[in-house]
Specification:
This protein is mainly α. It has 4 helices and no strands. The longest helix has 31 residues.
Length: 160
């Protein structure tokens, strides 16, 4: 079996998308339960000179993944993999749009709340809702990743 450049690009797309899934799983296991435990006190991990800045990761991985998806789609446009790549790519775009419209603005609003030791129940509620919706978003991208991996098993045959 010979690995082609096209297959390598497809594999890199799968890898990049999986890195997104893995990072989201990490944040849901290690960051969000602590961040939303007793806000705004628990949000101090995001504030100050040495606060957690996960945006530095997300703003780099998404453009790379989008570029890989576009390249993969172009390379496999006349193959049996096109439909799979399109489904996952469109799903990813929908997730990115909802992230841009709701998740990022809400997260910024919550995490930049002024520090105080008094627990704010409304803030805790907003954080809990954000986390539940984000878990749903994680389930969607995990499903999309699985579909993308299954697409790798499709032969190079031309779509009819």
């Amino acid at each position: 079996m010979m690995i082609t450049i096209k297959d390598l690009i497809y594999a890199l797309t799968c890898l990049s998308f999986s890195i997104i899934v893995g990072a989201a799983v990490y944040e849901h296991l290690a960051v969000w339960p602590r961040a939303y435990a007793a806000p705004p006190l628990s949000l101090s991990m995001f504030q100050g000179e040495y606060g957690l800045n996960s945006g530095a990761f997300w703003t780099k991985i998404h453009p790379v993944t989008l570029l890989l998806f576009i390249t993969t789609l172009i390379l496999f446009w006349k193959s049996a993999r096109r439909k799979t790549i399109l489904i996952v790519f469109i799903g990813y775009i929908v997730v990115m749009v909802t992230t841009f419209l709701y998740f990022v603005p809400e997260l910024i609003d919550i995490t930049t709340t002024e520090y105080t030791t008094a627990i704010d129940e409304s803030l805790r509620s907003r954080g809990a809702l954000w986390e539940k919706l984000s878990l749903l978003r994680l389930a969607v991208i995990t499903g999309l990743a699985i579909v993308l991996y299954f697409g790798a098993s499709k032969t190079e045959g031309v779509n009819n």
